[in-house]
Amino acid sequence: MHMHIVQKEEPTLEFARFIIYSSKKTPSLHKGSGGTEVKLRWCPGHVGIEGNEKADREAGRAAQGQLYPPELIPQFLESYQPPLNPLTRRRKVKEMSRTAAIKYWEASEAGEKYRLRYPTLSPRHFLAHTHQLPRSRATLLFRLVTGHIQLQAHLYRLQLVDSPHCKHCQIESETVSHFLLKCPRFAAERHTHLTSHGHDFLHLSFLLFATCALDPLFDFIKATGRLRDLIK
Fold first, then answer.
1. Rounded to whole angstroms, how far apart are CA atoms 64 and 59?
2. Is 211 domain-assigned?
3. Positive or negative, the Cα torsion across 125, 129, 135, 138?
4. Residue 230 lies in a domain
5. Does any domain span residue 163?
6. 218 and 152 in a common domain
7. Name one GO molecular function term (predicted).
8. How many of the other CB atoms lie within 10 Å of CB of 86?
């Protein structure tokens, strides 16, 4: 005697749960079956049936918020709003949160400073640029991009030092640009790790945002001996 347990088509997650649950229960079914062979079978609910396939497509469009022209909608359904499934709802909330975050950033003082410094580079580019970096290096790169780093110019703004001028050359304020690209004290290190790779490596918009510039950038900083507590 044979017994078949048939499960119709379900979403992938539900089907996986059914398989796990059934596989755990099958041994106990065998024990109490009196020798009956128990088999699990998966049965496609309506694969290939055009009417059901079309209904699935229409349900998917509705779940995504797509609307039909008013003349095609019966009057009693005009004000009906179909509930969103959990997956679509989470996606919508994520999109709304991202939009709100972008608007907040663009309206902030930090966002304005970033636009003035890097007008053609989106903050999203930075996230994609750093997602494979160790956290310590991603943090260092972020501080270089924003200018919030332990260089004289920033420390002076925080009233932690008496002068913004570079201690090594006394020529100008020790900004990120001065430290990375101009200070004569680090000319040899700059030539070895940056200039030798090409002229582009002497532009912040390339040096801080090009993937191929990351290792030379960090090597230069390490060679200067500056920012030792940040570079690893």
1. 9
2. yes
3. negative
4. no
5. yes
6. yes
7. RNA-DNA hybrid ribonuclease activity
8. 8
- Residues 122, 104: Cα–Cα separation, whole Å: 14
Instruction: Specify whether the backbone of 147 is left (phi greater than 0), alpha (psi in -120 to 50) or beta.
Output: left
pTM (2 d.p.): 0.56
Domain that holds residue 67: 2-77
Tell me which of 77, 92, 119 is where a domain ends.
77
Treating both helix axes as pointing N-terminal to C-terminal, what angle do 214-224 and 135-146 enclose, rounded to 10 degrees?
80
- Give the DSSP H or E segment for 42: strand 37-43
User: Which residue stretches of the chain are H helix?
Assistant: 12-31, 50-63, 86-107, 109-117, 123-130, 135-146, 152-157, 176-177, 187-193, 204-207, 214-224
* pLDDT at res. 63: 74
Tokens for 194, please give them. 């940056």
Averaged over successive runs of 10 residues, the pLDDT of the chain (232 residues) comes to: 47 60 64 62 64 77 74 70 76 89 86 78 77 90 91 94 94 95 95 94 90 93 91 76
Token representation of residue 130: 């750093």
From residue 143, give the alpha-carbon distance in Å to each of 9, 12, 126, 133, 178: 52, 44, 12, 14, 15
Beta bridge partners of 40: 5
Burial class of residue 22 in the structure, from the number of CB atoms within 10 Å of its CB (0-12 exposed, 13-18 middle, 19+ buried): middle
The pair of structure tokens assigned to 110 is 């930090």
- 68 and 148 in a single domain? The answer is no
**212, part of any domain:** yes
Number of domains in the chain: 2
- Phi first, then psi, for residue 160 (nearest 5°) are -100, -15
DSSP conformational letter for 80: -
